[in-house]
Design goal:
With about 280 residues, the chain is an alpha+beta fold. The protein has a single domain, classed as 2-Layer Sandwich (60s Ribosomal Protein L30, Chain: A). Helix content is about 25%, strand content about 35%. It contains eight helices and 15 strands. It has a seven-stranded mixed sheet with strand order 6-5-4-3-8-1-15, covered by helices on one side. The termini are far apart. The model has no long low-confidence stretch (mean pLDDT about 90). Bound molecules: zinc ion. Zinc ion (ZN) binds next to β13.
Length: about 280
Amino acid sequence: MPRELRIQLPDDIWAALSARSQSSGQSVGSLVKAALAEALDIAHRSMFQVSTSSAVVHGVYEGCVSIAELRRHGDLGLGTFDDLDGEMIVLDGRCYQARADGSVREVADDVLTPFATVVAFVPHATHRLSDVASWADLARQLDGLRTSDNDILAYRMTGDITSMVARAPCRHASGTDIVTATADQAVFTFTAPSGTLLGFWSPEYAEQLAIAGYHLHFLSDDRRSGGHVLDLAASRLDVEVQVVSDIHVVLPDTEGFLRTDLGGSVAEALDVAEHERSDR
Ligand SMILES: [Zn+2]
């Protein structure tokens, strides 16, 4: 759980903090957290990933890293579970599973994940978006804020979401390719859901490793609903963003990972599996 810290600051530090907050749009609290993490050598800009997107595309769904281990490396992120059993949401250091039956539960530390990405989230900037009409519009607005096409970014967003479509895959045995495995996914429609969006933007060059483009999962404030976001509209979104500067990837030692042919482009399959609704 986050701890509250109250300290007295000298005038000059306070003035510099205020000035930086004004110029960056970042809260004083976020700036202090980032400065402390830097000073204490906490690798807050690192991303920790289990397996690769190409392995998921090819149906490698055998869990290999525990949730306990995942939580040691980050407090915000997403992924899936053994046999593609739903969507993972890691928020404020706690791990949740959104399943195809619409249920959400907190996950025990000994559960295994076959694919997940987390960061110790320390945003470097905040932005406010208005009148987000759709997923495509969200991508367009976020694209306008990105300063590079080659960085990986982590996001956390809250605000007034007016509608959202999210999905969770049904459980499928390892070896079922992602397009087949998501063809019978459950799709949920939410009206004015109150909750948090989180996830990543990854560049095209990283498509074998990460899911290129925007990849967001949602968890409601009451922790009762969530999933992988397919579409949304929002009158306002407050976006916190963090640049990832290095990546730690765990290559699974499972039979599935070691024996599967992971060659070939996965962009088309990921596009279908990650962005399409179930009406195909
Ligand atoms: Zn997802």
